[in-house]
Amino acid sequence: MRRFFLFLVFCLYFVPASAQVNRDFMNKAQRKSYCAKLKAQGVRGIIKSEYASEKGLKSDQPVNYTVLWLSESGQPLKVAKYDPYRVMTEYETFHYDDQGKLKEKNYYEPDGSLSWKETFYYDAAGELIEAVEYTADGALDARKLNVFNDQGFLYKTRELNPDDELTFFRIARFNDDGSPVYITLRHAKGFTMSSEKIKYDANGLPEEKVIAVGLRGEPIREKYEHDNHGLIETIREFRGNKVKSLIKYRYFAQTFESHLRRNAFQKVRTSFSNVEKESAQLYVQKASFPGGDKALKNYLNAHVKYPDEETKQGVVEVKFEVKSNGKIRRIEIHRGISETLDGMAEELIKDMPEWVPARETDGKTVDSEVIVPVPFLK
């Protein structure tokens, strides 16, 4: 089973201390802050060059490259990986909905054939709750579930195999501002596979990460350097006191594409036109739960009861019509998990209070369709 590395992502694909597990655990404020930094500098592309030694860095002889294309709003459009000769070895594309949430990520071979893909599901407040991995032929490969605490921080992830059996889980601890400081990866049987400790500087930027693998493995230490804008510049990986590898980040604005051409990076076969957004009927005011998304999330948290006998977990998506008078009609399962959980989700929607209906430009209330995600997590 492949590891899940991209569940937050949006413009966080290259966030420093989140190069491995803890990228998942960045909170909304941290995500927005990093995106704002990229947007403020007009960054449209990032090149990450990895070196085997300080000597390799000085002579500019990387062992591989990773290239990230960004939209004007700071969202990743695609990522490509290259060997030292700038020949592409694989690439990925990102697909968003009309609200800018990442809905699908596709992984490709250099020839453009699909390797595998991920789809993403969110709760009523827009937090990523579930990610599902599929093989190229559409078979379920693995799932990942995110669990949030009362402060709204993602503190636990669960990874499941195709039979919905737990394989691994991660648990995070945070400092007072919500930054992850300690993360453990554990096997389903409970033993610790690895742990990470993250330190921050006075500005709240990641400064050092220590990774311990197993009980007797030599710890890996990563040191981070930032530029004057707070963007990651260099990561050095140490084993003991010896540098084992280095990663250098370079940020580009309008000169990005010309730089790639001048340096003969192999062109990615797909175009940005493949990164589509879901179409949606436009309203001056969309149909909403009384009190808004936060009230809807609180309502679901208060009324969703996970049955003891159930083994499935995840997000059930319920589609229904909100009439012009706010009444709920035509309830159906848009994305189901199990007969029991699907039925519970339908009943929960049936018992909801009337919604605030959608309005068109002339102020008239109209019928509209809504999809509500109902999370069922242990």
Automatic annotation (TrEMBL):
Signal peptide: 1-19
An annotated GO BP: transmembrane transport
Protein name: TonB C-terminal domain-containing protein
Keyword entries, A-Z: Signal
Signal as UniProt keyword: yes
Organism annotation: Marinilabilia rubra
Record-linked InterPro entries: TonB-dependent_transducer, TonB_C
GO cellular component: plasma membrane protein complex
Keyword Signal carried by entry: yes
Molecular function in Gene Ontology: energy transducer activity
Domain TonB C-terminal: 304-376
Entry-linked Gene3D superfamilies: 3.30.1150.10, 3.90.930.1
